[in-house]
Write a sequence for this structure.
């Protein structure tokens, strides 16, 4: 078979499309579709109890100069629910890990559902990060 190209031409090979070939292609697409990650896959999340003996602020971004999105959560009985971690401001040379939270649990029993970030070192000494309980935020 001559595979030389000339200006304006293309090189094409014709594949005989038999029912068996079409069935194989269909099966490969079906397997690929079932192996593809689901857009609705569950994201792991966890409750983080304030074990570092420090209250935490809930900030819009992973820095303490950002706006607060919820009242401070008070240790030791308050806790937050987080779904991922992100690098941000380092405070007191204790690392740059911030937890992305979506629920704040207060000592009086009330709960708020505000998105924000809390400083990992102040929340639990970065234990949730080191234990790989939650994943890095994809944004």
């Amino acid at each position: 078979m001559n595979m030389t190209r000339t200006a304006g031409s293309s090189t094409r090979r014709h594949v005989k499309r038999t029912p068996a070939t079409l069935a194989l292609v269909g099966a490969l697409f079906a397997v690929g579709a079932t192996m593809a990650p689901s857009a609705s896959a569950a994201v792991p999340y966890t409750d983080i109890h304030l074990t570092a003996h420090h209250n935490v602020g809930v900030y819009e971004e992973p820095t303490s100069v950002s706006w607060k999105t919820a009242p401070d959560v008070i240790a030791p009985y308050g806790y937050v629910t987080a779904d991922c971690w992100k690098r941000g401001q380092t405070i007191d040379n204790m690392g740059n890990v911030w937890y992305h939270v979506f629920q704040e649990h207060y000592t009086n029993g009330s709960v708020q559902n505000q998105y924000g970030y809390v400083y990992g070192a102040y929340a639990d000494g970065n234990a949730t990060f080191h234990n790989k309980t939650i994943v890095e935020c994809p944004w």
The helical segments are 19-35, 120-124, 127-130.
